[in-house]
Design brief:
By secondary structure, the protein is an alpha+beta fold. It has a single domain, classed as Roll (Nuclear Transport Factor 2, Chain: A), CATH 3.10.450.710. The protein is built from eight helices and five strands. The chain has a five-stranded antiparallel sheet. Helix 5 crosses helix 7. The longest helix has about 35 residues. The relative contact order is 0.17.
């Protein structure tokens, strides 16, 4: 019988994955607006657009992998610092990785997230998102935007860590998610560390690739 901890972990994985993948689908407005948009306003706008898009896109709602992956590739990457997310999950091993290893690791990690969480999109129905009040100083480089996802059952805490990025493509970018008090990066770091300690970065890449192949086979079946 699952322990309470395992139930929390499963719920975390479902909700965090739905949030991460769903954020890729909400680009109804040009992303250039993000440069001068407050982080809480950005999360609120994206959340509303995401929920509307999912309700009207059956392929996304059903977790169609080709559809989800295409949308992630075209729309999520400009708005999430996925390099930082992957580096944080990898830990000290990231600094020892070659550029080629880092590229492969990011690709396999992204594929793992999309495959693992695509099915969570089926749960989207009548949810709404409440963004908690946030004060941002002009010199703040990082903030946490706190939200509640409300629908059937108890509300789900869903928070976002964002960083302010300068230069071209500037604006606020997401680099971590918190569901029920557990951050996505913290959830994966011990798993990644175990693989790295056993065989280095290449072992982690192989492990992720094998999981992705298994997930792909399951989805085809």
């Amino acid at each position: 019988m699952p322990t309470p901890l395992s139930l929390v972990r499963r719920r975390f994985l479902r909700q965090a994955g739905a949030a991460l993948v769903a954020l890729a689908t909400g680009a109804a407005m040009p992303w250039a607006r993000a440069a001068d948009e407050a982080p809480d306003a950005m999360i609120g706008r994206l959340s509303g657009e995401v929920l509307e898009r999912l309700r009207n896109d059956k392929a996304l709602r059903n977790g169609d992998m080709a559809r989800v992956m295409a949308v992630v590739d075209s729309q999520v990457m400009p708005n999430v610092n996925f390099t930082r997310m992957t580096a944080s999950a990898t830990g000290p091993g990231w600094r020892r990785a070659t550029p080629e290893q880092r590229q492969k690791l990011q690709q396999e990690f992204k594929t793992l997230l999309v495959h693992t969480y695509a099915g969570a999109l089926r749960q989207v129905s009548d949810q709404t998102v409440e963004v908690r009040p946030l004060r941002v100083a002009a010199d703040d480089a990082e903030v946490v935007v706190r939200t509640w996802v409300k629908g059937r059952g108890e509300p789900v805490q869903l928070d976002y860590r964002l960083e302010r990025t300068p230069g071209q493509g500037s604006g606020w970018k997401i680099y971590d998610l918190n569901v029920l008090g557990v951050w996505l990066v913290d959830n994966y770091r011990p798993q990644f560390a175990q693989q790295i300690n056993a065989g280095g970065i290449d072992a982690l890449i192989r492990s992720l690739a094998e999981r992705n192949q298994a997930n792909a086979g399951s989805s085809r079946g």
